[in-house]
Amino acid sequence: MKSFTAKTLWLLAGLLSFNAALLAQTPEAAEMKKLDGTWVGGVKGGGGGGGKGGKVGKGGGQGFMVSVTELVIKDGKITAKGDRGSDFGAGTYKLNLGANPKVLDASGTGGRSAGKTHLGIYKLNGDTLEWCVGNPGIARPKDYFTTPQVQFHMVLQRKKG
């Protein structure tokens, strides 16, 4: 009988620990897990007039030197690559899920982005990520559109496999 009781107590303690670990996962941690992956696409709009809308393009359009075509988000880190083989470098990011729209701010730790902070908003709908981000020193975007040299609205799809 003692053996059964001891085993039962160990099993119960294990289950309680497992449940505590699940409950300890914050909403931000769960959202970060959803964002983990490789995202490909391009900048939407940006024909030079600063207007809303436009097509998703790899070249970005008039007024762009280069645009982001791939983001890799993994374990709280973010890296960005662009067309023509450009590498924007690596960084970290922070989320604010209480803001409306949700906030995704990136801080560069290496490469061209080192020491620069990009304030942004985002929405995640399944395997589609929209991130509108301002250039360093520019205020956080309030809506999703591209204005060259100010803010960039990226539409990205999760890369499969």
Question: What does it look like?
Answer:
Helix content is 20%, strand content 39%. The chain is built from two helices and ten strands; from the N terminus they run ααββββββββββ. It has helices spanning 2-24, 27-35, and strands spanning 37-44, 56-57, 68-74, 77-82, 87-96, 102-108, 117-118, 120-125, 128-134, 151-158. The radius of gyration is 20 Å and the shape is globular.
Write the layout of secondary structure elements.
Elements: H1 2-24, H2 27-35, E1 37-44, E2 56-57, E3 68-74, E4 77-82, E5 87-96, E6 102-108, E7 117-118, E8 120-125, E9 128-134, E10 151-158
Antiparallel strand pairs: 1-2, 1-3, 1-10, 3-4, 4-5, 5-6, 6-7, 6-8, 8-9, 9-10
- The average pLDDT value, as a whole number, equals 81
The topology string of helices and strands comes to HHEEEEEEEEEE
Write down the CATH class of the largest domain: Mainly Beta
Number of strand segments: 10
The total of helices stands at 2
Low-pLDDT residue spans: 48-65
Label the CATH architecture of the largest domain.
Answer: Beta Barrel
Structural class: alpha+beta
Sheet having the most strands: 8 strands, antiparallel, barrel
CATH fold-type name of the largest domain: Lipocalin
- Rounded to an integer in angstroms, the radius of gyration calculated over CA atoms is 20 Å
Give the neighbour order of strands across the main sheet.
1-3-4-5-6-8-9-10
Count of folded domains = 2
Helix content: 10-25%
Shape: globular
Distance between the termini: 51 Å
Percent of residues in β-strands: 35-45%
